Amino acid sequence: MKLSILIIEDNEQNMYMLSYLLEKSNYNVLKAYNGSDGLKLAHEHKPDIILIDIQLPDMDGYEICNKLAFNGLPKNTVYITVTSYAMGGDKEKSIEAGADGYIEKPIDPDTFVKQMKTIYNLKN
């Protein structure tokens, strides 16, 4: 069975790259360009993995993580923050907000899917 992945990302170029890499690797991809749409899609579709940009226009990724991780999605849903914000403490702050992992941008197209799978496999 194909895993489904929700990408919550406001930058169109990043969205294109992430969705291209994931679709090429045989994942079902859902896309949200802001936190509100991401929350709605997550609850409607219950994806296996949710990739969350930290800097979004309507709410930050930490808030989204917190709302998703502690509000009714399946316990095995994997939350991964993906950000170019990359400041000291961001990884820890992501984990505290409910994320299972953290990947810094710019992503490496050759290793991104493997990094994501590793985080997924640690939880499932």
TrEMBL record:
Keyword Mitochondrion attributed: no
Keyword Iron attached: no
InterPro entries associated with the record: Bact_response_regulator (IPR050595), CheY-like_superfamily (IPR011006), Sig_transdc_resp-reg_receiver (IPR001789)
Sequence ranges assigned to domain Response regulatory in this UniProt record: 4-120
4-aspartylphosphate PTM sites in chain numbering: D53
GO BP annotation list: phosphorelay signal transduction system
Keywords linked to the UniProt accession: Phosphoprotein
PROSITE patterns in the cross-refs: RESPONSE_REGULATORY
Pfam families assigned to the protein according to its UniProt record, in alphabetical order: Response_reg
Cited PANTHER family: CHEY SUBFAMILY, STRESS RESPONSE REGULATOR PROTEIN 1
Protein name as annotated: Response regulator
UniProt source species: Mariniflexile litorale
